[in-house]
Amino acid sequence: MPSWRRKLRPLDLLFVLISLTYPFVVYFGLVHFPPLTVGLALVVFLVLRLLLQRQRRAQRSEFGIYVAVVMAIVLLLSVNELLAIKAYPVLISLSFAFLFGYSLLNPPPIIERFARMMEGELDEQAIRYTRNVTVAWVVFFLLNAAVSLWTALYADLEIWTLYNGFISYILIGLMFGGEFLLRQFVKRKKVS
User: Fold this and answer.
1) Dist CA 44 CA 66 (whole Å)
2) DSSP labels for 63-85?
3) Gap between the Cα atoms of 64 and 48, Å rounded
4) What CA–CA distance (Å, rounded) separates 10 from 128?
5) How many CA atoms are closer than 13 Å to the CA of 150, on its beta-carbon side?
6) Each residue of 128-183: pLDDT tens digit?
7) How far lies 143's CA from each of 69, 138, 146, 180, in Å?
8) What single DSSP character describes residue 121?
9) Whole-angstrom distance between the N-terminal and C-terminal Cα of the chain?
10) Other residues' Cβ atoms within 10 Å of the Cβ of residue 151
11) Model-level pTM?
12) What b/e readout covers 58-74, taking b as 16+ CB neighbours within 10 angstroms?
């Protein structure tokens, strides 16, 4: 069964909730604990998530990305504990950019796969459109990673938390909403 159709289990829900609130968890954690403690908690969280993905037989590319993120966090922890903690959103954005970009090189692109699940067969114009949307998401995730990296390196913890825990989600929502409106416009234009 495709991963998007799996029933969410309580553990899945917990991992999603922690992932979405990660910047706020970090902010709270750093107020009460040293960076190394928070960083080790992140590593434990990521390893548990990795084991869950392996148990569920995640696609090889997904599993490889989880391993790369864990390795990068562990490596960064040995160099700069605070940067390791703040780098997680950067690594996640880069992971999404990689997955979307990889799908462009190994078709069908991710957005085309989603469109086929929703619409069935697609004509050439729709295939081109989904490819362009996939490219737009790659660019979006790369830009988001760049801003997240800037906040990790140069901004204080409050600004890092605000961007990575709130503003980036607003931008993702705007990207989804903007693409949805554009898709409706393109569909109407195609019919007329």
Assistant:
1) 13
2) HHHHHHHHHHHHHHHHH-HHHHH
3) 15
4) 38
5) 7
6) 999 999 999 999 999 999 999 999 999 999 999 999 999 999 999 999 999 999 98
7) 19, 9, 5, 20
8) S
9) 37
10) 23
11) 0.87
12) beeeeeebbeebbebbb
Half-sphere exposure in the Cβ direction for 156 (13 Å, CA): 1
Type of residue at 110: I
The 10 Å Cβ neighbour count of residue 17 is 11
DSSP conformation letters of 90-120: HHHHHHHHHHHHHHHHSSSPHHHHHHHHHHS
Tokens at residue 158, please?
């409050």
Strand, helix or coil for residue 140: helix
- What the block records as the tokens of 186 is 């393109």
d(CA 84, CA 72): 8
